[in-house]
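ASSEMBLY PREDICTION REQUEST
Request ID: AP-0331
Submitted by: J.K., bench scientist
Number of chains: two
Total residues: 551
Priority: normal
Notes: Please return the full assembly, not individual chains.
Input sequences:
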Amino acid sequence: MSRSLESLIGEAAHGRVGQVQRAARTLDQLAEDALSSGRMIKHARAAGWTGGAAEAFRGAVDDELFSNLKKLADGCRAAADALGPYAGVLDEVQSEGRRLLQRLDALDEQVRDAEQVAAARSAEAQTAQSLAGLAADSVQHARLQESAANASRAAGAATASAGAARQAIVKAEQQAQALRERHERAARQASQGLSHAAHMSLRDGRFDGLLDFGGDMATVGADVLDWVGDNSGKVAIGALALAAGCVVVLTAPVSVPAAAAAAAAATLPAALGLAGRAGAISAVSGAGAAGLKTVDPTDTRTVDERNNDYIKAALGLSLAGAGKVAGPRIQQAAPKVKALQPVDKQLRRAVSTPGKRVYIHEPRRKLLGDMYWEYPSTIVDKAGGAAVDARPERQPEPAKRPAVPCRPDAVNGLFAPRQPTAPSPLGPVQVSRITLPAPMLVDACAR
Amino acid sequence: MASFFRVNPAELDATAGVALRVVNQLDDGNLSSRLGAGSLGSGDLEDAVDDFLGSWSNRREKVREQAQRLATLLQATADAYSTTEVNVQGAMSAAGGASAGGGR
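STATUS: Completed
Returned structure:
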């Protein structure tokens, strides 16, 4: 049987122990350097350098740098701590696997040899037995009988030897299985450690991307409105939850009696614009909540399981959020959507107001490209760390963001097939069919 | 202008050096390649490393920018102090030489 190290210990065979150790050292060194540079800059700022220029330097150094360096160091140290033990296990598994491979090769050879010997001795015994029957005298007969018996015993011994070697092979294969499991456990532990280190970035982090998120949503909202403007009548309404990385497509034939033309013309685009934002905010909150749960180091889900949970949460809540406004009674749902606006405003205020911080997940680009983002919804006060009441509150409008140019061509491609229709009389919006299974949407609409 | 100042240009230079090392280590390409993509011996672990890098990307980039700015500032400051020291030292030597020469 042809064996390889991979057949014995699985993907551990492809690991490079030196590379894993180097990765751990790199992270450890980075942590050390981040702390050292923080200490040295602090020293230069605090005592090592005095005078007017030193004062100017002190003003130029943001305290946030030290906090970031410390957090980065902690995260890197945690990641290094996860990789270090794994490197040790990988080394042992590979070494033991190589020893097992050599042993199994030897055992295979032993089985082959013993089987050959057994076959040869067995044939020899048969030949001697046959010749004994033809022996000319009793002496020759006895000698041949003895030879046949000896050969038969040797064949039996060789067969037993082959059997013992086969049993040893089974045992060695069980050991290989144990090695594979040991490696899998170590890899899982290291992955969990790294995930923990990854989530350390979420703790108390200022989120710089929320404004970008707002910009993205403004672009999407503008594009959707533009597209809807070009396709008034019977349209397929796409509620695009871009920030959550989920595209939810609802097919919504809209009947448009002339009676409510003016009112619907005014409310439909507005409702659709809100729909995108509401869906995104809901998805963002849900994905964030799901994501924050994984900060728990005892979380035993694999990376894939966790990411699937994120997607489910984002998709489900996106459907729910979009469903509230783009569902069967889109016009009636508009007030609910409007209720979300203050939350949106509060999020924007939080990131534009010095002294407030927002917990936020970093972009997870490997999921659905750059579209998939996770945002938790908890806002904390910088000074006390206490949660800010996320309920809507009456505060002055924040400054409006600059207008984002519409790109109808880009948006049209998202909703195939495009069905340009003639202008129709407007009326109550009725969603007749939802193309995606959305149990959460049903729940949300029922509420 | 402050009437008194104390500075150790070598210390500022060393601080800039460490900050630059952090900048270099935080470079995306450098970090990814040194974290051993494709050679960890576990697909899940590779994913976890990607996850780790992705999660820290914003803060890493921010620290990198801040450290780069500080390193540049510190290096320029150390250079300026050192240059001034050399210039003043040179001027003093010249003045001392001229004074000594004038005395002959």
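REVIEWER COMMENTS: The radius of gyration of chain B is 24 Å.
SIGN-OFF: pending second reviewer
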